[in-house]
Amino acid sequence: MGKRKVAALEKIEADLAGLQYKIRKDPEAYEKEFIENWQQFDAAHEKFLAAPVGADSNSLITFREQIDLIAHCAELYPQITATFPDALKDVLTKHHAVLEPTLREKIVSSLTLLRRKDVIDSNYLLTTLFPILINTPSKSLRMVLYQKILSDIRNTNTKTTNHRVNRTMQTVLYNLVTSDRSSPRALWAVKLVRELWRRQIWTDARPVDIMRQACLADDEKVIIGGVRFFLGGDKEREEYEDDSSDEETVDIKKVKHLVEINKKTKKSKKALDRAADRVKKQERKKNAPHPLNFSALHLLQDPQGFSENLFEKHLQNSKSKLALDSKLLVLQLVTRLVGLHKLTVVPLYSWFIKHLSPKQQSASSFLASLAQGTHNLVPPDAIEPLIQKIANEFVSEASASEVCSAGLNAIREICARQPLAMNETLLQDLVEYRKSKDKGVMMAAKGLLSLYREKGADMLRKKDRGKDATMGLRSGDVKQLKFGEEEAGEIEGLKLLAKWKEEQKKRKEAERGIIEGAEGAEKPKGEDEGDGWNSSDWEVASSASDDSGEWIRVSDSEDEVEPQPDAKRQKVDLGDPGEDDKENVGDGTADFIKLATTQILTPADLAKLRELRIEANIDKAMGSRKRKQEMEARHVDEGLTAEQIEAPSRLRKSTKEERIALAKEGKPDREEHKSTQAIRKAKKDAEGKSTTNKEKARRKNFMMTLGKAKSKQKRSLVTTRNILKNHIDRSKSGGRRRNGISR
To answer: Do residues 408 and 433 touch, judged by C-beta distance below 8 A?
Structure first.
C-alpha cells in the first residue's frame, strides 16, 4: 500500500500543533517563530476586516488555527500579544452576524481561554460577550455565550465572592430591564439571575431588585419569568442543593478491594487516588457551615409598594393584555406577598367578587389565592362579603359534590387566617353539611367545625362545641382574639417546663409534709401545733449543711414552704371547688410569667426543656393526646395551591388502576418476577462482589466432579479417617490459606 498524500492544510495544522508544544516547553528558543506567526495573524486579520463576507474557506481555516495558537501561548509573550484581545473583540463585536459558525465559536473560546490564563479580567470578558448575547440572531451562538457567561461568573465566585464583578454585572442587568420595559431582550437578564440564584452564587438583595423590576415590565415573557422567580426560585435552590448533596457516594473499601484482587496498574492506582480525593471533598462539604439563605420574598425592599404596583398594572388595569394563566401567576404572587408580610391592599378583595363563581375558569386557583391573601390584620368587613359569595355560589344542595367541598375547604382556609370574618348564622348553616352522604363534603364541613371549636367555640351551638371546647369556655382557656390582637410570643415548651417545675415543687412539699406529720406525732402535748413553725426543722437543716461542707443549691422557682393550714380552714376550702380551680389557673399563669420574665434558664433547665418538647411531639405523633389542628402553622412561604383546595373532593374510593399505580410508586421497575434470592444475587453482581466457595462448588460442572466422586468410593476406612482428620485440623487453623492460628 502506497504512502498517503498529506494535504497542505493538514501539514500546516500539524506544524502549528507541534510548534505550540515546543513554544510552551521553551518560550525563549522559539520566540522568533512565534513572531512570524503573529505577523501572519496580523496580515490575515487586516485582510478579514477588509472583506469579512467574501473570504475563502482556506484562508478562514488558516486564520482560525493562528488564533488558536496565539491564544494558547499569549501569556508567554505579553508584550507581543498586547493587542490580541482587542483584535478578537473587534472582530466578534462588529461581524458576529456574518462570521462562519466555526470561526465564531473559536473566537469565543479563545477569549474564554485568555480569561482562564488571566490575560484579561472577568469584566472585560463579560462586557464583551453580554451585548452580543442580547443582540445576535443566532440561536446556537446565544446558547454558547450564555454558558460562557454563566461559567465565568461561577468560576469568579468559587473561592471568595467577587463583589466587584457581581456589582458590575448586576448593574448591567438592572439597566437592561429598566431601560426598555417593552423589549424582550430583558428575558436574558431574567434567565441569568434565576440560574445564579439557583446555584446560590447571588444571594443578596440586588438580584431580587432586578427581578422586581422584571415583574413590572410590559413584555409578558419577562413578567412571567420574574413572577416565577419569586414563586419557585427558593424551591429550585433547595432542590439543586439536595441534588448536589445526593451525589453518588464512593465506597472506598470496595475500591481498595478491587485494587488488591485485580492486576496492579497505574490506572487502578489513579482510580483509588481519585476516590480518596472525592471522599475528602464530601467530608469537607459535610462539615462546612450552612450558609444563611434568605427567601427572595423576604429580601424585597418595599413589599407594600411592589404588591400595589403589580395589582394596579397587571390585574386591576383593564388594558392589560396578559393571558388568564399569566394573570393567575401574578395574582398568586400578590396574595402571597400580602399574606407573608401582612400587607393591606383593600381594592384586592373587592376585585375578587366577580371571579368567585363555579363557572369561572380555574375557580379553585382564585379561591386558593384569596385564602393565602388573607391574614389576621385584614378588616373582617372586607372578607365577610367574599365568604358569603362563596357560600351562595359553591355551597348548596344543588351544587356538585366537588364544587361544594372546594367551597367549604376555601372558607375553612380563609377563616383559619381571619376567624372574625364568619358570622354565627352562616357558620351554623355550613356546619350542618357534615351530615352529607358525600365523603368530601362531609370531611370539609368537619374541618370547618373543628377549626371553630378552637378559634371561636362560642359561635357554635352547644351541641356542636364538643367536650374540650365546652370545658375551655367554662374555664376561660378558650377565647376568641379581637381584631388586631396578637398572641404573645414565647419560647416553645416553656409552659411545659413551668408545669414540670410546679409539679416538682408540689411533690417536694408533699414529701416534706409527710415527714413533718410523722415528727408531729411524736411531739409533746405542750407544744403549739397551730403556729406553723417548728424549730427542729431549722436545727436539722443547719446540722445537715454543716455536715456536708458544701454549698446548698437553692432554686429561684421554689418559694418558701407555706405553713400548713389548720383543719377548720381546710374544711372551708373543700366546700368551694370552683374557687380552687380559678386559683389554680391563676397560679399556673403566674408561674409561667414569672419563669419567662424573671429567671435565667440554666443548662439543666434547657436540657429538661428539650426533653419535654420531644416528649410532647412524640405524644402528638402517637396520638396519646388530642392534637390541635393548627392551620396557621403551615409555612407561609409555600403558599396555598389549587390542589389543596380541591383535596376533599378526591376523598373517594380509588379504582383498581389507581391502587396498582400507588403500589408501584417508588419501586424499581422489574421486567419479570424474581425471587428474593435472585434479587440479592443480581444486586451482588452489580456491586462487583464474588460468590462463596459453596456456591462455586454447587455450580461446578458435573463432569469435572465425576472423577473425584468415583475415587471417593474406592477409599479405604483408614484413608477416609486420615482425610477427615486433616480436614478438621485445617478448619481449626483457618483453612488451606491458614487465615487462623498457624500450626
So the answer is: yes
The reported pTM is 0.67
Q: Where are the beta strands (DSSP E) in 330-391?
A: none
Joined grid coordinates for residue 600: 435565667
Count of beta carbons in the 10 Å neighbourhood of residue 566 = 11
Dist CA 164 CA 126 (whole Å): 12
CA-wise closest residue to 513 among 499, 492, 534: 534
Q: Does the CA dihedral 103-107-113-114 come out positive or negative?
A: positive
The Cα–Cα gap between 361 and 648 comes to 20
Q: What is the CA radius of gyration of the chain?
A: 40
Distance CA 354, CA 235 (A): 32
Q: What residue has cell string 474564554?
A: 112
Residue pair 364/324 in contact by the 8 Å Cβ criterion = no
Q: Cα–Cα distance between 646 and 658 in angstroms, integer? A: 18
Portion of the chain with pLDDT greater than 90, in percent: 30
Instruction: For the chain, give percent helix, strand, coil, nearest 5.
Output: 70, 0, 30
Distances, alpha carbon 222 to alpha carbons 216, 228, 685, in Å: 9, 10, 52
Half-sphere exposure of 130 (CA within 13 A, CB side): 25
Going through 15-99 in order, the beta strands assigned E by DSSP cover none
Element (H, E) at 602: none
Assign 621 a pLDDT band (cuts: 50, 70, 90). low
Q: What is the pLDDT of residues 357-381, one digit of tens each?
A: 999 998 999 999 999 999 989 999 9
Q: Which residue do the cell numbers 490580541 mark?
A: 84
Distance CA 295, CA 439 (A): 38
Give the model's confidence band at 250: pLDDT under 50 very low, under 70 low, under 90 confident, else very high: low
* CA–CA separation, 393 and 476 (whole Å): 37
pLDDT of the residue at 308 = 94
Amino acid, res. 730: R
d(CA 128, CA 107): 12
Q: Dihedral angle at the C-alpha atoms of 513, 519, 520, 522, nearest 10 degrees? A: 160
Q: Where are the beta strands (DSSP E) in 483-615?
A: none
Residues 542, 560: Cα–Cα separation, whole Å? 16
Dihedral of the alpha carbons of 250, 254, 256, 262, in degrees to the nearest 10: -130
Distance of CA 231 to CAs 41, 192, 396, Å?
Answer: 52, 17, 34
Grid cell, residue 731, equals 478448619
Provide the 3-class DSSP secondary structure of residue 479: coil
CB 187 within 8 A of CB 221: yes
Beta carbons within 8 Å of 416's beta carbon, 6+ residues apart: 451, 455, 631, 632
- Grid coordinates of 546: 454543716
Where would I find the beta strands (DSSP E) of 292-417?
none
Contacts with 442 (C-beta within 8 Å, 6 or more apart), sequence order: 433, 434, 435, 436
Beta-carbon contacts of residue 143 (< 8 Å; ≥ 6 apart): none
